[in-house]
Amino acid sequence: MNLFFVIKEGFSGIWRAKLPAAVTVVVGFFALVLLGLFATVSLSFFDIIDEVRGRVELEVFFPEGTSEENVAGQNKTIEGMNGVRDVTYISKDSAAVIFRQEFGKDIVEILGMNPLPRSAKVLIQTGYTGPDSLQGIVNAIKGLDPAYDIRYNKVFLKQLEENARLFSVLTAGTGIMIAIATVVLVGYTIRLAIYSRQQKIKTMRLVGAANWFISAPYVIEGGIQGILAGGFAALAIYLISDQLLLRYEPDIYAVLHPSTFLVYPVLVGLGCFLGVFGSTLSVRKYLRKA
């Protein structure tokens, strides 16, 4: 019976304070839409970064005097190193074919010989593409033979990691600010509802009602408001992504669409959490003072 009363009071509280509840849902809706759009772009950005990281490779050039057997053995050793995803050996003939494909001319016809060195393309696992991890792999390969010439785009990878860290900080900061704003707004609305029912709360205390029994309806009320705001926000993200972008910007839609599937349930869950959290803080603060 108590549980039924608590749930009933949570729903009826929204009906009794329709305007504050509507304001909270609307404001929470806009805050969560902003957060959802930002999260969608952020997740897509990180997906692109991971894709770029997955293409990171080292080029290992072998000295001219190294035998084919030694090169084959070294390639197997490199392939077994931590952080190495795959090793592709490029012989002198294969290098000449690549040269012809890229420049449209046969290097043997130009120079009368094939001066291109043998090499290996070493693909790196995503978790090892950071500057320190990559340098560790380079040092390990150099340990096999100091004469190996190892090349990769250090400047590009350094800029990639710096931009990823900066974007992570901005994403976290923006998400926290929006979350705090939503908690404050929900808490403010619940506080108004509590003040409008002060007499009822005092009566419940006089008859011995526990604090959890008094606060539960307001917590439920905040959770419902958060769910409504999150649900409407998810619907708005769907309309923006699967209707507007798909129709007018299909290229952008192809990049952002995979991330929206994660955003929909997160917005509803986050709205509920922020609503419950904000209302809980407000109720506890009031009951502590009362």
Structure overview:
This protein is 78% helix and 7% strand. The protein is α+β, with helices and mostly antiparallel strands and 290 residues long. It folds into two domains: 2-51 and 160-289, no CATH class; 57-151, Alpha-Beta Plaits, CATH 3.30.70. The protein has a four-stranded antiparallel β-sheet with strand order 2-3-1-4. Helix 2 crosses helix 9 (211-248).
Entry keywords:
alpha+beta, Alpha-Beta Plaits, 2 domains, 290 residues, four-stranded antiparallel sheet
Q: Can you summarize this structure?
A:
The protein has helices spanning 2-16, 18-54, 68-79, 92-103, 107-111, 131-144, 154-196, 198-206, 211-248, 250-289, and strands at 57-61, 84-90, 119-124, 149-151. With 290 residues, it is an alpha+beta fold.
What count of structural domains? Answer: 2
- Strand % is 5-15%
Derived from helix and strand composition plus strand pairing, the structural class reads alpha+beta
Largest sheet: 4 strands, antiparallel
Q: Give the distance, in angstroms, between the N- and C-terminal Cα atoms.
A: 26 Å
Total number of helices? 10
Q: Topology as H/E string?
A: HHEHEHHEHEHHHH
